[in-house]
Amino acid sequence: MNKGDTPLLQVRNFSLNFKIEKTEINVLEDISFDVQEGQIVGLVGESGCGKSVTSLACMRLLPQNAMPPAPHSEIVLDGDDLLKKTNKEMIHYRGKHVSMIFQEPMTSLNPVYSIASQLTEMFKLHTDMTKKEAFDAAVKSLADVAIPNPEKVMRQFPHELSGGMRQRVMIAMATSLNPKLLIADEPTTALDVTIQAQILDLLCDLKNKHNTSILLITHDLGVVAEVCEYVIVMYAGHIVEEGSVYDIFENPSHPYTIGLLKSLPELNEKESRLYNIKGSVPTPTDFPQGCRFAPRCEYSTSACTVEVPRFTVINETQKARCIRLGAEHIINGR
Questions:
Q1: Residue 28 DSSP symbol
Q2: For residue range 265-323, what is the model confidence (pLDDT) as tens digits?
Q3: Is 39 contained in some domain?
């Protein structure tokens, strides 16, 4: 059981390589973070930073070309080291203890099976329910995510539902057994603003009702500001900054975090040109030496290309990787 202040999820020193042809490519290096019980943590960064790979690692759903994690790596959920579990054990562990809402429900839901077939499977796999009991439980799970007329939806197929309805079905499927940890990978990306707000409200309700911990993967800082309590900023397979949502938005300290926040449009600056970080995220085959953000950083010096910066503690809840962290023009870079 989770006791005291021990985090529900502890990722420690997680490093991962992919094998491409005969070459091993580093995609994640020394990833460490916590998710407390009942906490919503945002994992943010541009596409290609390693957010989704990190979330898949926590589910033990990595692609076949993923090499075994480094020996010192740990992913511990409520006392269970997931990296030590067999594939068979993980089949029964997923859904019951940790679940995931994938980015695009249309590709995650099987188009040839009804919602009933896919939703009742969770109860059949993890419980001793009869077919009727599993059906009734699935109907209730749809009702719990505010789907109108859930009995009708159970008879429908994914293509008959709107994007927002499909996302709700995915949330119902992921939360039907009240897992301790819910991982949501860009759950609002393909939805319009109104539906996005409804989905976010739904996630917050689930967290409040069941004390569910949520790891929210997103590139949308507006979403992070609205629902998250703690934020982890990733860049090119590294965590470059982390802190409370207040720390990140009021005192961003890594140049990458500052750049992300400066890129947000402001309503009172209609005539100004929108800020953008120069360049793009490097691919794992082309990660630079030293600080991986250095080629795009307006504050970088030759020293930044020597070695990966260590974390500098800024306050009790915030730390960042930058050798020039104490420079006033970076701290006040916004």
A1: E
A2: 776 666 567 788 899 999 999 999 999 999 999 889 999 999 999 999 999 999 999 99
A3: no
- Amino acid letter for position 33: F
Residue 120 falls inside a structural domain = no
42: which strand partners?
Answer: 216, 231
Report whether 18 contacts 53 (CB < 8 A): no
283 in a domain, yes or no? yes
Backbone angles phi, psi at 18, to 5 degrees: -105, 145
Residue 298's closest CA among 251, 262, 270? 262
Rounded to whole angstroms, how far apart are CA atoms 50 and 164? Answer: 26
Domain count within the chain: 1
Q: What is the pTM for the complete model shown?
A: 0.91
Question: Which amino acid is present at 118?
Answer: Q
Report d(CA 116, CA 32) in Å as an integer. Answer: 38
Cα 282 to Cα 94: distance, rounded to the nearest angstrom: 32
Quick: pLDDT tens for 124-182.
Answer: 888 999 999 999 999 999 998 889 999 999 999 999 998 889 989 999 999 999 999 99
* Tokens linked to 273: 């040109």
| Domain assignment of residue 258, given as a range | 253-334
281 inside domain: yes
323 secondary structure, DSSP code = T
State residue 230 phi and psi, 5-degree precision.
-140, 150
